[in-house]
Amino acid sequence: MPRFEPHPARRPAIVSGASSGIGSATALALAELGHPVALGARRVDECRALADTIAAAGGQAVALRLDVADPAAVEAFVAAAEAANGPTEIVVSGAGDLEFGAVHDMDPANFLRQVEVHLVGAQRLAQRLVPGMIERRRGDFVVIGSDCADSPRPRMGAYNAAKTGVEAMVTQMRMELEGTGVRASVVRPGPTLTGMGMDSTPEIIGPVLADWKTWGFARHPYFLRASDIAAAIVAVVSTPRGAHLVLTEVQPEAPLTSR
Fold first, then answer.
1. Which of 50, 143, 147, 206 has the least C-beta neighbours within 10 A?
2. Could you read off the pLDDT of 139-198 as tens digits, one per residue?
3. What is the pLDDT of residue 98?
4. Mind listing the domains of the chain with CATH numbers?
5. Which residues make beta-bridge pairs with 143?
């Protein structure tokens, strides 16, 4: 049987979208494992506060501005991250936001912005970081997908299209990376309580929830926590060499029924 070198004990990680939600929880979880983490987001002040929290707990983190929609910002972020922590072993691509709306109502510029961040932003990270992983013959490139890719929901604007596209991209990457030692994976959250889309007004969110119920997308009121998705990401990147968690979907457990 082929033999794989084990993962290094210290695996420098990059997390995009690290200022809140799933990205923040993932950075904390990776740092707890002893991996140095580069925290990337447009809200760099939030990343600095998280880096201070990680450092206070004995971990290593650097906070850097990152806008995945800006190629120059991606280049500057990666260069600074690797100067601080060393060659990247783990990438978690989680930058993104959500603007609710029907497809025919959305301004095309806003629609494009969603695709630019969720899909093209992930590809920018891959183009900049995966070649180095191939050269080192190891690495994990993990993208945060969505169960919307499997079951699109109404009034989600460009989110369904962007997440479907990014999951298809990672499937393609997995075929292209076969035999390189680099694993491309999707972690697919179900309904998760984060700040994404939570700045919407009741006038916007009311029809969204009504349509979700009509189409069977609100079976119960429980939501996942960001830490639940972080745990799944840790499982993916911690899987020993020679095995590959290709697609990991996480759904909220239903509340217990009365006996």
1. 206
2. 999 999 999 898 888 888 899 999 999 999 999 999 999 999 999 999 999 887 765 545
3. 84
4. 13-249 (3.40.50.720)
5. 93, 186
132 Cβ contact list (under 8 Å, min separation 6) = 87, 88, 139
The pTM is what? 0.90
Distance CA(13)–CA(244), nearest Å, equals 18
| Residue matched to tokens 């939600």 | 21
**C-alpha pair distances (Å), 143 with each of 15, 19, 59, 170, 209:** 10, 16, 23, 8, 26
Do 121 and 95 contact (CB within 8 A), yes or no?
Answer: yes
Question: What span, in angstroms and rounded, lies between the C-alpha atoms of 189 and 213?
Answer: 19
Long-range contacts of 158-161 (CB under 8 A, 24+ apart): 158/99, 158/103, 158/106, 158/110, 158/111, 158/112, 158/113, 158/114, 158/115, 158/118, 159/98, 159/99, 159/114, 159/118, 161/114, 161/115
Enter the DSSP assignment of 44.
H
CA distance 245 to 216: 29
Nearest to 228 by CA among 185, 189, 254: 189
Predicted confidence (pLDDT) at residue 214 exceeds the cutoff of 90: no
- Read off the pLDDT of residues 59-96 as tens digits, 9 standing for 90 and up: 999 999 999 999 999 999 999 999 999 999 999 999 88
